[in-house]
Amino acid sequence: MYKVVVPISGGKDSQSCLKLALQEYKPEEVLGLFCDTNFEHPLTYEHVANLAKLYSVKIETISGGSVEEKVLKYGRFPGGGARHCTDELKISVSKKFYKQLAEKQGGFQVWYGMRLEESSARKKRYRDKIDSELYPPHLVLSKYPQYLAKMGVMFRLPIMEWTNKNVFDFLAGEHNSLYDAGFDRVGCFPCLASGDAWK
Predict the structure, then answer these.
(1) Which strand (E) or helix (H) includes residue 72?
(2) Tell me: the pLDDT tens digits for 133-157?
(3) CA dist., res. 182 & res. 186, Å (int)
């Protein structure tokens, strides 16, 4: 039975949550969940596969299609006001996965690697949250349905107060090598919602 599910992007923050969860739970009690957008860098795919070996955990891969399909469907790149990539390729497929897992085995925690330092929007959204507390999913991300909490699925933001330095120090050199090449973001590559400079 899985006690913690950690959504994995291949980035440093979700990896920190995975490593942190393994300090509290046995490897067989922790599941990594990789939502494949089919728009990841080859080094990120390699890194995600290596995480399973590095931490001796299972990483489940699910997919709701590809970024390219969504761009063609909506006739535009994702942006600040229209993150159809996140909505349809990550949130939508993960909430279905959480529902199915809860039906199969009962409730569990989901540890999300969100940090206040990442953006002013996140600082505003999560400023009243406590990193050790558990919250109904819809109170962390409004697009998650309320029924998940009734099924025993609860969210935690364990590295909410961490800085970039905290994260890199904690990972001790085991992070995705794209960071060493100078990239700030590695989930989706390049992230089409992160500005023209990165594209």
Answers:
(1) helix 67-74
(2) 999 999 999 999 999 999 999 999 9
(3) 10
